[in-house]
Amino acid sequence: MTLDKRLGQRFLPYGANYLDWSDMTELEEVIGHRVLFRYQTEGESMASRLERRVAERLGAGHALAVHNATEALRLALISTRPRVGDLVYIPAVTFVAVAGAVLSSGLVPVLVDADESLSLDPTLLPADARRVVVAHMEGVVAPVPYGVPYVIEDCAQALGARLPDGRHAGTAGWAGVFSFHHNKVLTSGEGGLLVTGDAGAWATMRRYHDHGSARVPGRYPTWDEDAHFGENMVTSEEVAAIQCQQFRHLDELLAGLERMYAVALDGLPSRTDLALLPRSAGDVKVSLRFRWESRELRDAAVACLTARGIANWTLNKYLLTDHPVLTGRRSLYADGFPWNHAPGNRPLALSRDGFARTRDLLDRTLCVPLSPELPEAEQVLAVKAVRQALEAV
Ligand SMILES: *Cc1c(COP(=O)(O)O)cnc(C)c1O
């Protein structure tokens, strides 16, 4: 297959997947046991193995696997024991799942404008903020605010990223969430995982995610005196098996991204109207982020890359100030829950300039994915193809 074909057929915005029958020992093990429910057996389940490995690798206190990162966000939010209608500060530039998780937990999102790197700007947070979600978008490590009791790090697009102090993204806040959706760094189709250093919070999360019960593996669930209601967010053994298999490749994947990023730093055009945005050492280098001098040039570059079959995207879709769910305060509840609890006297968006600078940055930004699984010689060719397309703009 030609390189063009291989790149065109990836359909993988971020990261890679390593699905290969010759590498599925965990899945074979689970099928061999003939038990796909994690709490059916008393020994270590595949889900527990995954949680243990992720916690070890990321230096997290505790981990819990669930169905997806949206559910993990909800679980984290509810486990802070909020009141209905409490405010949650979220990035103005992120996937709408963050707002959906806040709203479906009965809480009210407040959009916080971005800094230069398009991450939530912590200097905009009010002194009384109690719950904040920061998102490490596209592997870009966002600043984690200090002095807020419940910071939830959304690492759906940043598995393996590190903060400047060396800690892994997801372990600096009160909780961190990860996604194994198809479009993320590693994939099991759908999948989510939550980490926290707070043992009490983990126990609460584990109960809520299993019908509010204090289940002993191998037994029927039990509810003690201070049990609360819950939901069923318990993962499956076959999914955990694929996640374990994928997770084995994390270091290989991170190295492949770093290698292609280094190639790109060397091989891109030097135009005065185009800048490759530098990435920090701890970022997961899932993409090259370009900043053009104008929106017109950016749009011309999109056309040029697309015409040549080179995957690319813009980030305008992440601007939640324009999202209909938020602008229209949409809800399925007849009384508009939980928007009907939104305070009338406080703004639900925090920005110094009405998001003007963020809009301008988004309008001029263009992203091109990196392909970690390619051998270096093919990464060089892929970068060359990108360079030629950008020179033609
Ligand atoms: C994909 C994504 C989510 C949701 O993840 P799922 O596992 O698909 O629920 C949340 N936040 C961000 C930033 C994402 O990119």
Describe this structure as you would to a colleague.
It holds the Pfam family DegT_DnrJ_EryC1. This is DegT/DnrJ/EryC1/StrS family aminotransferase. Its cofactor is pyridoxal 5'-phosphate. The protein is α/β, with parallel strands linked by helices and 393 residues long. The protein has 2 domains: 17-248, Aspartate Aminotransferase, domain 2; 250-318 and 356-391, Aspartate Aminotransferase, domain 1. 32% of the residues lie in helices and 13% in strands. It has 12 helices and 11 strands. Helix 4 packs parallel to helix 5. The longest helix has 18 residues, at 250-267. The mean pLDDT is 94.
Task: Give, in spatial order, the strands making up the sheet with the most strands.
Answer: 1-7-6-5-4
Low-confidence segments, given as residue ranges, are none
Can you count the helices?
12
Helix fraction, binned, reads: 25-40%
Fold-level CATH name of the largest domain: Aspartate Aminotransferase, domain 2
User: How confident overall, as mean pLDDT?
Assistant: 94
The biggest sheet amounts to: 5 strands, mixed
The CATH architecture of the largest domain is 3-Layer(aba) Sandwich
Q: Notable features of this structure?
A:
PyrdxlP-dep_Trfase_major; 393 residues; 3-stranded parallel beta sheet; transferase; 5-stranded mixed beta sheet; Aspartate Aminotransferase, domain 1; binds pyridoxal-5'-phosphate; Aspartate Aminotransferase, domain 2; pyridoxal phosphate; aminotransferase; transaminase activity; 12 helices; alpha/beta; 2 domains
